[in-house]
Amino acid sequence: MSLVPWRKHAPTAFQTEINRLFDDFFGTPMAAPFAGGSWAPAVSITDSPEAYTVRAELPGLEAGDVDIDLTHNVVTLRGERKEEKRDEKERMLKHEFSYGSFMRQFSLPTDVDPERADAKMDKGILTLKLPKSSATKGRTIKPK
Questions:
Q1: Do 106 and 123 fall into the same domain?
Q2: Domain membership flag for residue 115
Q3: Distance CA 38, CA 119 (A)
Q4: What is the DSSP string of 88-114?
Q5: Are 138 and 116 in contact (CB under 8 A)?
Q6: Which helix (H) or strand (E) holds 17?
Q7: Is the domain of 114 the same as that of 52?
Q8: How confident is the model at residue 60 (pLDDT cuts 50, 70, 90)?
Q9: Could you tell me if residue 91 is inside a domain?
């Protein structure tokens, strides 16, 4: 029996589509291991009557390393985690850190008010407070 060397192949269009479907359903990035070193931050999104809160794990990044775009009900996070330089004399025994650019995009159930949005970075966690647009909040009225 001969051994065949294992080679990492780029995902096919079918695999990419399956990964996207899993991402949409489970809300987690399934494609990261197949993307050749790219990564995607883990995210949690909560909903309250007044606002959405988006939290993203961005270890090793500073606030200036992340771009946030808010358009209607779509939130886009972009950034890049760069590989640290190491001494040429050091020999790598194991390396599991992921580096490279990322982009995560989410559609929220209603529009947000970008003028009142707030973003904070603390200990590698980005927290976005996204107030719901007053136009989409609705109101309760009493009949006369």
A1: yes
A2: yes
A3: 24
A4: TT---S------EEEEEEEE-SS-B-G
A5: no
A6: helix 13-26
A7: yes
A8: confident
A9: no
CA distance 11 to 35: 8
Total number of residues shown for the chain: 144
Query: How far are the Cα atoms of 136, 139, 140 from residue 143, in angstroms, in the given order?
Result: 21, 13, 10
Do 45 and 21 sit in the same domain of this protein?
no
State residue 77 phi and psi, 5-degree precision.
Answer: -110, 130
Q: Is residue 92 part of a domain?
A: no
Whether the CB-CB separation of 55 and 47 falls below 8 Å is answered with no
**Residue pLDDT, tens place only, 121-140:** 999 999 999 999 877 655 55
Whether the per-residue pLDDT at 19 is higher than 70: the answer is yes
| CATH code (residue 115) | 2.60.40.790
| 70 in the same domain as 24 | no
- Tell which wins on pLDDT, 138 or 96: 96
State whether residue 125 is helix, strand or coil: strand
List the domain range (segments joined by +) for residue 28: 11-35
- Average pLDDT (55-60) is 92
Both 57 and 25 in one domain: the answer is no
Cβ burial of 32 (10 Å; 0-12, 13-18, 19+) is middle
